[in-house]
Amino acid sequence: MDITPTSLQRDTELYLDTLITFQVNDTIFKVPPKYIHENSEVFGAGSQISAESGEGSSDAHPVKLSPLPHDCTADDFRCLLKIIMALTVGLPIPTNYGLDKWLSVLKLSTAWYFSDVRTLAMEQVSRSKTNYTKDQWITVLDFAHNNSVQFTDLRDLAITRVSGFRFDSKVDQVLLGRKYLHKPWIIEGFRELANVYELPSLAELRTLGKDTLNTLLYMAFNRARNEGRGYSYNYDYRGPYSDHEVEEHFHDEIAALFPAPVV
Question: E strands of the chain, at which residues?
Answer without folding.
Answer: 20-24, 27-31, 63-64
